[in-house]
Design goal:
The chain has 136 residues and is mainly alpha-helical. 71% of the residues lie in helices and 0% in strands.
Length: 136
């Protein structure tokens, strides 16, 4: 598994933990639930960047998500889907060096692997709308 993919999985898990248990940011960034592995440091550096950025800009990220939900309230979203949306929305808004198509494809992959059966369709629709809004 590519290190960026792993980094996104770890970041999604951390954002989920933050949302469900309000785990403090400093604790999240330790990734203490992972086995210590010196070979993971580059992967964890990218994960830390994603988590820190998403939480630093959480109000803006959540506003973009809310603005592109049709007939849904952000509070009613499955926590896994919300973590994936937050991660990808942060990337779409603030990591312009990563193509939007890659960000969305990675989010769809996370939703297929960790979300409910139709999560990937929902995640794709919301992120595509956010992508279009960012391009305008």
């Amino acid at each position: 598994m590519a290190s960026r993919r792993k980094a996104r999985i770890y970041a999604m898990q951390a954002l989920y933990s933050w949302d469900v248990g309000r785990t403090p940011r400093d604790e999240l960034l330790k990734f203490s639930w992972l086995d210590p592995n010196p070979g993971l440091e580059d992967t964890l550096a990218f994960s830390r960047l994603l988590v820190s950025g998403a939480l630093e800009h959480i109000d803006e990220v959540d506003t973009h998500i809310r603005d592109h939900l049709d007939h849904w309230k952000i509070e009613r979203l499955a926590k896994v889907d919300l973590a994936i949306l937050r991660l990808a929305t942060y990337s779409l808004l603030f990591q312009r060096d990563i193509p939007a198509s890659i960000t969305i494809d990675e989010a769809i992959g996370l939703a297929r692997e960790f979300g409910a059966d139709d999560s990937y369709r929902f995640v794709n629709g919301v992120l595509d709308a956010i992508r279009r809004a960012c391009e305008e």
